[in-house]
Design a protein that fits this description.
This protein is mainly beta and 232 residues long. It is globular. The chain has one helix and twelve strands, in the order H-E-E-E-E-E-E-E-E-E-E-E-E.
Amino acid sequence: MQVVSKHTLVALSLVLASSAAQAEMTGGQVKLSQSGFTDDFSVAKTNISGSVELAFGPQFGMQMDLGVNMLNFADETATNFVTHGTYKLGDSTALGAFYGMDAVNGGRTDIYGLEAAQNFGTGGVQGYVAHAEDDGGSGTVLGVSGGMVMGNGVGIGGSLDHGSFDGTSLTRYGLRGSFGLGESSKMFAELGALNTDAGSETYAKIGATYNFGANSGLMFGDRSLFNLLPGS
C-alpha cells in the first residue's frame, strides 16, 4: 500500500528546503527520553531529538525532525530524519505530508505518508498513515495520539500505533502523564505495552521536552519506525 508517491514527497521537501531561508520559524522542540521493557530494562532505548517548524505565510509550512536513538539491546545507534510539508486550514487544524529516513547498521528504511492534527483549548489530537520500505521488504504504519493539560501544569495523554511488515504485525499503546516546569518545559512518564505475534511486553518511559518559538511547540509529532520500539 502506497499512501502517497515517494517521489512527490521528495520533490516537495526539496522545494520547501530551498525556500527555508525566507521562512519564519514558528515553533520547535527538543526532547530527551529513556524507555525500556519493565521485565528486562536492558532491552531499552535512549532518544534525543529536535524539531523545527517553519512558516511560508499563513497557510503553508514545513517541519524538520532529527533524532538519534541509542538501542541498548542491540548495541547500535540509529538515526532518523523527517521533513513534513504542512497546510493549515485554520489556527488549530492542519494537514501534512511527510518523507523520512530511518538508518541503522548501514541499512536504510524510507517512510512516507499523510497526517492530520487538530488542537482544541489546552489539548489536541493527531493521526497519521504511512508506507515504509527498504531493500528487504515493505509495510504500513498508522497511529493516533492526543492529550490535554488538566490544570496546574498537569497533563494526560495517550497514543496507539500499529505496524504490519511482510506478514508480521505489532501494536504499541501507551498512557502518559506530564508535569509542566514553567511555560516551555515539562517532564513526562509513560506506561504501555508492545504487542507482537510472539506475545505482549510492558514498557515504561521517562523524559523531558523543551518547546521554543512563537507557537511554543509543534503541530505534528516526529515520524519514525523506531517510535514503535519499545516506546516513542
